[in-house]
Fold Amino acid permease.
Amino acid sequence: MFGRVKPLDAILATAEKKSLHRSLGAFQLTMLGIGAVIGTGIFVLTAEAAQKAGPGMMLSFVIAGFVCAVAALCYAEMAAMVPVSGSAYTYSYAVMGELIAWMVGWALILEYAVAAGAVSVGWSGYVVGLIEHTFHMDIPNMLTRGPFDGGMVNLPAMLIASLVTWLLVIGTKESATVNAILVAIKVSALTLFIVLSVPVMKMDGFSPFAPLGFSGISAAAASIFFAYVGFDAVSTAAEETKNPQRNMPIGLIGSLAICTVFYMLVAAGVIGTVGAQPVYGPAGQVLAPGSTALSQQCAALAASGHEAVTCSKEALAWTLREIGWPQIGNLLGLAAGLALPSVILMMMFGQTRIFFVMSRDGLLPAVFSKVHPTYKTPHVITILTGVFVALFSAFFPVGILADISNSGTLFAFAAVSIAVMVLRKTDADRHRPFRTPAITITAPIAILGCVYLFWSLGLETKLMFVGWAAVGLVVYFAYSRSRSHVGLGHVEVHEEDEDVPPQPVPPI
């Protein structure tokens, strides 16, 4: 099970032989990180967190952010030491063997492709709300919501997923430049929200702080974890980074720190101005986010003139309208509409690069690692990923997609944290440009934190993850295992040694 380990030297040689163009610096990486992290989580899932935890979602942000911080420290060491595409998949291959690496790569499909679909749905909600408020018109739900959400198909979400796919095919550098502009718009909008809402906060909004107890806070943390997903997508860009040994840790930890500060201030602004208490049913029962019962209760509240932030598809824009800034609220909706595509871009960017490196290892068909002759991007897998993201976003609501994405992410984070500890023992002499501080404490905390958040997810989400893992095992043993380059005894070599026959792998 753990026998097929790909040596780190071979991983680095593979990347050197068939590499992507290095064009990203520390500033671009930090912008990419912020672009990947700040998005649907804070713009859209704020309402879902309020329904699960009330004002206690402040603590949920702290819990999720802390787990991400310790995982980021582990990621930073691995990303700087092994500056190649593939993220958690590559690191696991080097440490825990091919089967574990395959399962991590398979789980990352949930993280990136499903998350990109979730963000596309979030973008659709803000843009549709903006158009309806600006032009005083009503767009039919049948065309802007999936079947789970009271509609038929989410056409705006499909449109934005297709547009981002085209942008990624054109090239990473162009994508990163556009992304930097969108990040600036997004951060400006959130800053404006903080400036307008925080000074008029009332402490009454924070009481009761945890109306549904700590279990509600844990459930909200498991969902809101999605608000932090994306920082590890920066590590998948390692192979396209200039001086990765220096720039990767800066991009990872810098972007996470900036985003955490924003989240705490934005959440405080919502709670302190319009309140964030959960909406209960007619008999006082707790209503699940995204449920038909909650939608009906929200409609009843709206009819009586007592709307709640938990009912809004555009929580931040709605909050500004409620506190007397309707035009600024519309502007924030516009900013979200312009900026959320940067998150979709980064998620799909990470997905395609993981497929690229898995294909390069023989675990997926070779056509997946084909690079476009003009744009120098893995265009085949980019287009294929784009099709699936468009389908996810067309038919599923944001809450379901976010929770499914979280299950795959938490599995991958735990795997990297284990890999860092193992590698300290098995390859202690390797040069580490960045060393995780207090590794014997940091890594176990990261692992336990991932397990805790996974356990706090809903039962349906956990069962779906198990089912997805089972399908992955079938694919691995039916196709990938017999075609693996490591399994066939091939070790990739440096470009200047291409004419040398593949060398056999020594037995482990």
